[in-house]
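Lab meeting minutes (informal)
Scribe: AK
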Amino acid sequence: MAIDVLFFDAVGTLFGLRHPPGHTYARFAQAAGIAVEPDAVARAFPGAWQGAGAPDYQNAHDEAAREAVDRRWWRGIVQESLTQAGATFSQEALTTCFDALFAHYGTVDPWMVYEETPDILAALQSEYRLAVLSNFDQRLVTVMRALGLANYFEAILYSSALGASKPARLAFEKALAHLGVPATRALHVGDDPHKDAHGASEVGLQSYLLDRPMKDLRGLPRFLTDHDRL
């Protein structure tokens, strides 16, 4: 069946980080008076991030409440990263560090658009409806506008607005409902085998899985052309 809608993950798919999160965390921690080694934070971050699970929106009944959940969730990751890196700090210092970090990641400064992204999106925009489906919060819209990517998309959908995070079925189901498209006529593009590819397949979406730098967005148009020939 022909594809009408392409959903795209954001971070790791359309754009990425200029610097590793752990080193950025350490820089902001040091600015807040917290003594910590950047390499130690870099080693601690992956475990802190993976161990945090997904934000729990169960008792958050509107987007403002879910944004607060996201903020607490990220603060927990920052705190755990610094703790596991051996830092000691007051809650006041942690608040100073976290508030600055949270604001930083809502600007264009930490992000870079992948080289092929604009050309691929421009080529696809005339053939498909494009939307973003990302485990992010309301900062995503500001970031994508600043990066010059927002105008390619009919919708920018993110966890705190949907009330669910990938790979949960609800995240994909709400995205499909928002675009008014059945799963059989949509494809999800992302870089995470579990959150993107597996999550999409659970609700009947096809997927295109990136594996940078070996496999990026350049192969997507040919993949879609071959699919439409089936």
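Next up, CB showed the second protein from the same session:
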Amino acid sequence: MSTAKKEYKRVTVKSLIEMKQNGEKISMLTAYDYSMAKIVDAAQVDVILVGDSASNVIAGHETTLPITLDQMIYHASSVVRAAKRALVVVDIPFGSYQSDSKEALRSAIRIMKESGGHAVKVEGGIEIKDSVKRILQAGIPVMGHLGLTPQSIYKFGTYTVRAKEEQEAKKLKEDAKMLEELGCFGLVLEKIPAALAQEVAESVSIPIIGIGAGGGVDGQVLVVHDLLGMTHEFNPRFLRRYMNLYDEMGNAISQYVEDVKSKDFPNDREQY
């Protein structure tokens, strides 16, 4: 049975729980700067993820590992200044929470205080239980991330689909339940079989956001640069490109260069 979509002036953690309960899918996109976040927020995206994927799409690194906590805070504070409606979730970067729960809390507090973000996201299950618990005890909302966890890419050795084997799928389901019981408000499931993702979504009360995890979850997330076609080398099956800005921007810039060289720009109307 369909239900009327509720209008949210400001999306909160509670809003996402309501959306799941009402059967309304949750939209989530990345943003890393003020200008892009302003566009994403105005388009009524529910959640803006300030992802450590900034390491790839903004800084050009091969993995998400090099980005620092200071850099994440810089990106997050830029996004927060633009977001008037969306919930802003900030990735805690690699090395800032995994081994020491006290360091995890310090990292989360810095993100919340210095960026103004609304929640943090961490990757992993039982291995980071103590860190998640300590952050939650401080009153900071936490989103989990299971399946393909890019911060562990050198452990996996590949970006292929995770949890296809029974043992890994069993652990993923156990980790999801554990994160829910600890108090996480939601989970991202990345690049796992659609049937498994749907099973997890139906087994927990918190929203499950998928990326390459099929349509049976509670919402979807993509990297905004991929969605807009600003990147063109990355072509996974789960990506739908809604524009081809790589070519369109390139053509516009080439035209500008030509106009400058030919003295067509600026013309009489474009000068004082």
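CB comment: The chain has two domains: 13-241, 244-272.
No objections, moving on.
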